[in-house]
Write a structure and sequence with these properties.
The protein has 397 residues and is of the alpha/beta class. Helices cover 34% and strands 27% of the residues. The strands form 4 sheets. An 8-stranded mixed sheet has the order 3-6-2-1-9-11-12-10, sandwiched between helices. It catalyses: L-aspartate + ATP = 4-phospho-L-aspartate + ADP.
């Protein structure tokens, strides 16, 4: 057993939504174990548990402390890990669950957006050597200096899984989902979207940055830097899923791979002498209010005002906008927008923005502006046109 390769699998909240689903996952893992695999499982919180915990926090407090919020949110993954271990015992398989800190996931100090500094999976290895399945709580770690518990940001269990797979020198990291891997569009929006069988890291990273909820953006960056192949599979499905590797051969340059979207983009306006002062004031505001940086998309300075365009999970955006009400220098600027992005393999063809704008115009969707990145065209549209825009642009695939 000691010499067998280690299998690292991550199960998302959707696959663990009920105790019955957890038992079914345990049954699959037991079969894998009996075939001689050494298994490390990373789990997310059950179903919508994390959203419910966040909601409760804002019912108990107007401005929950970020430290206490992390303490609260890490309990979601603890529930799944212990239930899965219990279910595994029922199937006659020895298992043990660990929190992020027990598993050796070391992070920086940033509550709610911590970055992994190092993984020291000493106890994980010991338990694998004892012949146990090791079940780990994703999305969390500990700061080695302060000993404080941290979370990695929403969707962070994928990043735990990649970091653990790299630390254990696994051959690949398997991400088990309710969808059939990475699709040409969110299957909830485009019913006839197709699963992509092979993808390169750069394309997937671009898709996740621009809203593909299928993986935590940072997990793709980490997999790329560690050259850790990813396999995204539908739980219980017979399909092969999506294989994500360093390079993909034989694809036509400029081919549109997928359409993804960010549901909610907000703008903040800051009175300032220049862009640098604008950012300084924004950074001070975040710090004063105990907020972490949102995902910045663009910024510009004109006529005494810095304007920052950003996105993040909805809860964090609401919190940020609430804090602006108490500020003289910072305010919400203009209406909320959505983005729709076309990700291309091997670079964007020069006429693609024009084609995309024409298609949207044909569907009476007005494009506010667009930005180009090396692998994608990203168009900004009214929130109410988001789904129609995704459907319309999917015709380019
Ligand atoms: N391009 C995409 N490909 C596949 N799923 C996507 C894409 N964009 C958004 N999604 C959404 O991402 C979710 C990820 O899968 P799911 O198994 O439900 O989540 P989790 O593993 O986080 O519990 C799905 O609900 C799906 O609708
Ligand atoms: N439970 C956390 C972390 C996570 O990664 O979840 P999931 O794998 O279900 O997206 C969240 O909801 O953000």
């Amino acid at each position: 057993m000691r010499n067998h390769a280690i299998t690292v699998q991550k199960y998302g909240g959707a696959c663990l939504a009920t105790p019955a689903k957890i038992r079914a996952v345990a049954s699959d893992l037991a079969n894998l174990y009996r075939r001689g695999h050494r298994i490390v499982v990373i789990v997310s919180a059950m179903g919508q548990t994390t959203d419910e915990l966040v909601r409760m926090a804002y019912q108990a407090s107007l401005q929950p402390s970020r430290r206490e919020l992390d303490m609260l949110l890490t309990t979601g993954e603890r529930i799944s890990m212990s239930l899965l271990s219990m279910a595994l015992f029922d199937f006659g398989v020895p298992a043990i669950s660990f929190t992020g800190s027990q598993a050796g996931v070391m992070t920086d100090e940033s509550h709610s957006a911590a970055r992994i500094l190092d993984v020291r999976p000493i106890r994980v290895r010991e338990e694998l050597d004892r012949g146990r399945i090791v079940v780990l709580a994703g999305f969390q770690g500990v700061n080695p200096a302060t000993k404080e518990i941290t979370t990695l940001g929403r969707g962070g269990s994928d990043t735990t899984a990649v970091a653990m797979a790299a630390a254990l020198q696994a051959e690949c990291c398997e991400i088990i989902k309710e969808v059939d891997g990475v699709c040409t569009a969110d299957p909830r929006i485009v019913a006839n979207s197709k699963s992509l069988r092979q993808l390169d890291f750069a394309s997937l990273s671009e898709m996740c940055f621009w809203g593909a909820k299928v993986l935590h953006f940072r997990s793709v960056e980490l997999a790329q830097s560690q050259n850790m192949p990813l396999v995204l599979k539908k739980w219980g499905g017979s399909e092969q899923g999506t294989h994500v590797v360093k390079e993909v051969m034989g694809m036509e340059s400029g081919r549109v791979l997928a359409v993804n979207s960010l549901a909610r983009i907000e703008h903040v306006e800051i009175d300032s002498a220049d862009l640098s002062q604008g950012f300084e004031r924004f950074a001070q505001h975040l710090k004063r209010n105990g907020l972490s940086w949102p995902q910045l998309l663009a910024s510009a300075f004109t006529a005494g005002k810095t304007r920052i365009m950003m996105t993040c999970d909805s809860e964090s955006l609401d919190t940020l906008l609430r804090t602006l009400k108490g500020s003289k220098e910072l305010r919400k600027h203009r209406e909320t927008l959505s983005s729709v992005s076309l990700t291309c393999f091997g670079g964007v063809s020069t006429d693609l923005p024009f084609k995309a704008i024409q298609i949207l115009q044909h569907h009476a969707i007005i494009v506010d502006k667009y930005v180009l990145s090396p692998h994608s065209v990203n168009l900004f549209v009214p929130v109410e046109s988001r789904e129609a825009a995704v459907k319309a642009l999917h015709s380019l695939i």
